[in-house]
Amino acid sequence: MAPSPIDVSADAKRVVPMSVMKLADEAAPLPAKFLKKASERPTTAHNVFCKEIPVISLEGIDSPSGRERIVGEVRDACAEWGIFQVIDHGVSEELMRKMMENTLSFFKLPLEEKIKYAAKPGGFPVGYASGSHRADDDILDWRELMSHRCLPKDVRENDYSLWPDQPEEYRKILVEYSDNIDRLVTLLLAVISESLGLPSDYIKNAVGGESAEQKILLNYYPQCPQPDLTLGLRKHTDYGTITVLQQDEVGGLQAYKEDRDQWVTVEPISGALVINLGDQIQILSNAKYCSVEHQAVVNSNQTRLSLVTFANPNAMAQMGPAPELLSDSNPAKYRRYTFKDYLPICFAQKTRKHYDALVI
Ligand SMILES: O=C(O)CCC(=O)C(=O)O
Ligand SMILES: [Fe+2]
């Protein structure tokens, strides 16, 4: 008997047990595999937006007074929120729109086509997955995802077999987007360095300069028959340096405001990009800044897309609190490590606060 077209390998079968998009079309009730524990279910709706999360214009970054304002606003946003939005950031709205269109076209392909790019289980997914990319997950997330290793360039070039050849412009647009977001990341790392009183190139150098890693993750959250009982993406912190997130107009990204014990929903602002601090900034800043816990909620009548760029250190980068920030009154809170050793901690430990494993 000819193998079924989706039966591409034992690994792929484990990673892509079903299409969440297809389940969404079949409507209620929510399959039990997606039922989150009561303590993990959403408490704030996808469309109740928090107006306090800072929105920072990067216009004027090249003038001394503009830069001073931006560094000050970024310092406050990092210390108070760990998440903020940027506008006037130099990534064109046309490119952002094309990325959204291409991503949507990819997810609309038949499952047989998407599964050609199925991610292997374990670690950070590379390729397509649905519900979860972990082989051992009991409760799944209500999302499909597609993910690519984009930088450094030699990694990207080795990875093209997992880059779809349709829609036609997918690869070209993704490369352009990757390069544009990388420029923005370089700028933001300079501003964050300055906001900590460090030289502009400090963090960029600490994470491996031009050898730093970039991954782009595309999330598709179908409409969900019972959104109160599940999540599009469970709560976590991002393990890398910083994350740049483009979301559509639906809303669903939520950040946990620890001092208020409250989940707040990030308002979708056309043309804006959301910036999340990752664990590496928390550790490098010796917890002056914190990586924010966040999650994605879903809703019953709209699908949602988010395009997420992770700027991570190079695997061999030596990470730890910046010695320049330490003193007798501010001793190191975390031990030093090689970034490649951080990932197994993240994926072995099912808790969200991976950096706890490094606390001195
Ligand atoms: O879709 C979102 O808004 C959140 C995505 C996210 O946090 C992630 O992919 O790490
Ligand atoms: Fe995240």
UniProtKB/TrEMBL annotation:
GO molecular function, one term: oxidoreductase activity
Domain Fe2OG dioxygenase: 211-313
Keyword flag Acyltransferase: no
Assigned protein family: Belongs to the iron/ascorbate-dependent oxidoreductase family.
Signal peptide: none
Record has Protease as a keyword: no
Organism (species): Riccia sorocarpa
Keyword entries, A-Z: Iron, Metal-binding, Oxidoreductase
Official protein name in the record: Fe2OG dioxygenase domain-containing protein
InterPro entries assigned to the protein according to its UniProt record, in alphabetical order: DIOX_N (IPR026992), IPNS-like_FE2OG_OXY (IPR044861), IPNS-like_sf (IPR027443), Oxoglu/Fe-dep_dioxygenase_dom (IPR005123), Plant_2OG-oxidoreductases (IPR050295)
